[in-house]
Fold:
Amino acid sequence: MQEVIVRAEVPEDVRAIDVVNLSAFQGEAEARLVSAIRASADFIPDLSLVAELNGRIVGHLLLSKVKLQHDGASKTVLALGPMSVVPSQSHRGIGSVLIQAAIGRAKDMRYAAIIVAGQPDYYERFAFQPAATWGLSSNLRLPADALTAMELMPGALKGGGQVNYPALFAEIF
Ligand SMILES: CC(C)(COP(=O)(O)OP(=O)(O)OC[C@H]1O[C@@H](n2cnc3c(N)ncnc32)[C@H](O)[C@@H]1OP(=O)(O)O)[C@@H](O)C(=O)NCCC(=O)NCCS
Structure:
């Protein structure tokens, strides 16, 4: 594979990221979700990552803040998604490179854990585990086994709890 560069998005990338999301997903919901998160307080510019190949953006992955509620207390963890790779470049490892980079950056930034809604078969290969491992649930209308998670700090998910996704996510789940 030619070298893929992963970096944080900059304002000039917004249109290209839209194009990636519109091409990877059927419909506009995910592209709209990315824009809505970008405009919200949950957005973390350093964790909206693009994959560049030959100077062209071919993939995007977003980690944003989400609240984990447990025993009346609330802590911030990260929600992964949407993520996308343009169909013409999929199955070449670009998604994997994006995920590994996202995990590394989130750890460096000292976030506690990452939660993923959907596609457990894909994410489990990166050591995401079923949310049930910790007794985690979410406010999304998803089958229980569709939620996976990863601790970035040991014990961060101990005791489980409910991941409260912003209403913006309800449109695609
Ligand atoms: C999912 C996606 C980001 C993967 O990107 P990628 O660059 O193709 O990923 P990689 O090359 O690192 O890995 C490819 C492997 O992932 C697996 N895979 C891809 N899509 C999958 C899915 N929807 N469910 C389960 N496994 C999947 C396959 O096993 C594939 O292996 P193969 O090439 O031997 O068939 C990309 O296919 C995509 O944009 N899909 C449409 C949007 C989407 O579903 N996003 C994820 C949900 S937010």
Summary: The pocket of coenzyme A is lined by residues 24-25, 81-85, 90-96, 118-119, 121-122 (CB under 6 Å).
